[in-house]
């Protein structure tokens, strides 16, 4: 269980995260939503111990995140970052194998190899292992990193997976695929915490939603509780209409187009 | 190509380069005699009757070849490690301030020596320059490291720029001293700034051996962690890599090894920059391969460069730094053009 108690985060006197509390359980996917600059990525970086909160505490299974040794933590949690800048021609397999670095002392190489080829397969990169990372398209590169973080926690049933905008830049198929993998990992008993922008993906895949506004927790609950016209309007300043998908009973968010008068553009 | 094959080829080339460098010179040592002498020295065969070649080989030529191997290996492996932590293929050990700091100190000592240390003279003077250079290298590297750190964490991007700034400052002061130096000192200064292995003795080799060996043994152990650096430091940390300690280890080991080498051989440019590039072209970018392979290729390169420095205009020697730059820059331009075409296609 990941428990967050009244954390704040301040950089150069500017408060980015203000008094956020929540808890997330294994077996569930938590989506973090909010407008640009609301503090979603920053909150994620506090939850995964990349940064230390200025006040408050984040605990994993009752232990403060800052008490973990970096290597021990790397065996328990993985993070898919928003962007990647790899500038050397590593092969796809070499990059994905980096996900196994934290485990290399515990296991045989064959096990690592097997995990790497499994994660490559599930990310649709089955025949990409030998290719140079630099020659892939942006979306393919992103899937390589997804395969890498999956490899990091693949055989750790209690792991926590953090995803920062995991579907940005992916095509429709792999947007679904990525979240379906995350959902399947939850079924296996892991915990997934993802920053997402597409509220319909949130509605379809997330078990809990945290809505952030200006670094504060605006609302927290199930998708059907959180995704409503009023809260979406307050947080995103966009008018929407919510339907209920009769098959899945999850909410369907229909956005109303915004009109800008062309005279405003001059 | 498979890695074992590449290692075999590289080691083979290294051995050939070594034998060539040992055999060729003012007095040529025929290969059979050379091999016989080497075998008898290692106790494999019975000692041969004392020949005229023995002194030349063991007193004059061998220290020089061994020194070239040590300096080359240190420059190669440090170059590869520094490029990895800076995540910048244009980085080289000089960026840590080692070369500029060493030059400043060495030039200072040379000029000072002319006025104060003349009494000490000869070989002792050589040691004073070496110690001065090593001190200068360590001080500048430490200064750049400290100036680029916030809360004890070195900021790599700042360090790159800080390195350029401190290097420029050192070069300026060095230039100031040089401009006001006397004729005899100038010759010494030029010789040192362009690099030379002509001062090689077994004593010098014993002196730098521990520094170079420390880097040759300990840097390859960082190979995997340095691979993770390619993802960026934050991502490397997510993989459990203690980036702060890796950076500190790499910077310390490189400064020690390259500082010690610069102290005894002067500035030998371009090896630390180009050798890792060549190695990546041959066998890929994995640092578990690039680090040791850069040491081997660096040693080969410097061994051959020193051979050229000795023989192209014999009996006059050319500075080795000039040879490495003369060969190194076209090679580097070739690599850049090749990469450019690869990107545009």
Provide a short characterization of the protein structure.
Chain A: Pfam families: ABC_tran. By secondary structure, chain A is an alpha/beta fold. Chain A has 9 helices and 12 strands.
How would you describe what is shown here?
Chain A is an alpha/beta fold and 266 residues long. Chain A is built from nine helices and twelve strands. Chain A has a six-stranded mixed sheet with strand order 6-7-8-3-9-10, with helices on both faces. In chain A, strands 2-1-4-5 form a four-stranded antiparallel sheet, covered by helices on one side. In chain A, strands 11-12 form a two-stranded antiparallel ribbon. In chain A, a hairpin with a 2-residue loop joins strand 1 (2-11) and strand 2 (14-24). The radius of gyration of chain A is 19 Å and the shape is globular. Chain A starts with a strand and ends in an 11-residue tail after the last strand. By secondary structure, chain B is mainly alpha-helical. The mean pLDDT of chain B is 87. The chains are: A alpha/beta (266), B mainly alpha (345). Chains A and B meet through helix 2, strand 6 and helix 3 of A and helix 9 and helix 10 of B.
Structural topology:
The complex is a heterodimer of chains A (266) and B (345).
Chain A: E1 2-11, E2 14-24, E3 29-34, H1 40-47, E4 55-60, E5 63-64, H2 70-74, E6 77-80, H3 92-98, H4 109-122, H5 138-153, E7 160-164, H6 172-187, E8 191-195, H7 199-205, E9 208-213, E10 216-221, H8 223-226, H9 229-236, E11 240-244, E12 251-255
Parallel strand pairs in A: 3-8, 3-9, 6-7, 7-8
Antiparallel strand pairs in A: 1-2, 1-4, 4-5, 9-10, 11-12
Helix pairs in contact in A: 3-5, 4-5
Chain B: H1 3-23, H2 31-41, H3 52-86, H4 98-115, H5 122-147, E1 149-150, E2 153-154, H6 156-179, H7 183-194, H8 202-218, H9 223-228, H10 233-238, H11 243-265, H12 271-283, H13 287-311, H14 320-344
Antiparallel strand pairs in B: 1-2
Helix pairs in contact in B: 1-3, 1-13, 3-8, 3-11, 3-12, 3-13, 4-5, 4-6, 4-7, 4-11, 5-6, 5-11, 8-11, 12-13, 12-14
């Amino acid at each position: 269980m990941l428990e967050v108690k009244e954390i704040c985060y301040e950089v150069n006197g500017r408060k980015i995260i203000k008094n956020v509390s929540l808890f997330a359980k294994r077996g569930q996917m938590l989506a973090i939503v909010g407008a640009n600059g609301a503090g979603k990525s920053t909150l994620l970086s506090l939850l995964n111990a990349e940064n230390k909160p200025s006040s408050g505490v984040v605990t994993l299974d009752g232990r403060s995140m800052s008490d973990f040794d970096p290597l021990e933590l790397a065996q328990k949690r993985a993070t898919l970052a928003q962007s990647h800048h790899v500038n050397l021609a590593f092969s796809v397999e070499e990059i994905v194998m980096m996900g196994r670095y934290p485990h290399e002392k515990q296991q045989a190489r064959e096990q690592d190899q097997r995990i790497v080829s499994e994660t490559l397969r599930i990310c649709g990169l089955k025949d990409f292992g030998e290719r140079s990372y630099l020659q892939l398209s942006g979306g393919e590169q992103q899937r390589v990193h997804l395969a890498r973080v999956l490899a990091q926690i693949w055989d750790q049933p209690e792991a926590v997976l953090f995803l920062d905008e995991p579907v940005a830049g992916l095509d429709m198929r792999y947007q679904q695929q990525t979240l379906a993998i995350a959902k399947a990992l939850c079924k296996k008993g892991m915990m997934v915490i993802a920053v997402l922008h597409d509220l319909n993906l949130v509605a379809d895949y997330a078990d809990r939603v945290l809505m952030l506004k200006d670094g504060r927790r605006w609302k927290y609950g199930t998708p059907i509780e959180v995704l409503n016209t009023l809260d979406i309007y307050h947080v995103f300043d966009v008018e929407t209409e919510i339907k209920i998908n009769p098959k899945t009973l999850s909410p369907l968010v229909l956005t109303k187009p915004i009109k800008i008068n062309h005279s405003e553009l001059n | 190509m498979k890695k074992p094959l590449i290692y075999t080829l590289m080691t083979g080339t290294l051995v050939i380069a070594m034998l060539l460098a040992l055999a060729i010179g003012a007095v040529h040592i025929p290969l059979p005699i050379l091999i016989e002498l080497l075998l008898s020295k290692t106790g494999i065969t019975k000692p041969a009757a004392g020949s005229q070649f023995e002194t030349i080989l063991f007193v004059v030529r061998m220290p020089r070849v061994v020194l070239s191997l040590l300096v080359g290996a240190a420059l190669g492996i440090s170059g590869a490690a520094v490029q990895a932590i800076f995540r910048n293929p244009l980085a080289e050990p000089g960026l840590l301030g080692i070369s500029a700091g060493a030059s400043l100190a060495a030039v200072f000592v040379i000029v000072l020596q002319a006025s104060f240390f003349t009494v000490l003279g000869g070989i002792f003077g050589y040691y004073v320059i070496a110690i001065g250079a090593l001190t200068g290298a360590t001080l500048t590297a430490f200064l750049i490291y400290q100036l680029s750190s916030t809360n004890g964490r070195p900021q790599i991007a700042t360090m790159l720029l800080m390195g350029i700034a401190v290097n420029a400052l050192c070069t300026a002061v060095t230039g100031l001293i040089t401009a006001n130096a006397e004729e005899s000192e100038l010759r010494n200064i030029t010789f040192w700034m362009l690099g030379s292995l002509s001062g090689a003795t077994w004593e010098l080799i014993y002196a730098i051996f521990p520094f170079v060996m420390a880097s040759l043994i300990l840097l390859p152990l960082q190979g995997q962690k340095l691979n993770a650096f390619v993802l960026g430091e934050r991502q490397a940390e997510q993989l459990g890599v203690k980036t702060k300690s890796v950076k500190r280890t790499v910077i310390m080991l490189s400064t020690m090894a390259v500082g010690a080498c610069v102290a005894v051989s002067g500035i030998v440019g371009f090896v630390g920059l180009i050798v890792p590039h060549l190695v990546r072209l041959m066998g890929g970018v994995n640092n578990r391969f690039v680090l040791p392979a850069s040491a081997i290729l660096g040693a080969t390169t410097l061994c051959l460069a020193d051979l050229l420095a000795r023989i192209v205009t014999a009996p006059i020697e050319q500075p080795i730094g000039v040879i490495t730059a003369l060969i190194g820059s076209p090679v580097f331009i070739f690599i850049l053009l090749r990469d450019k075409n690869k990107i545009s296609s």
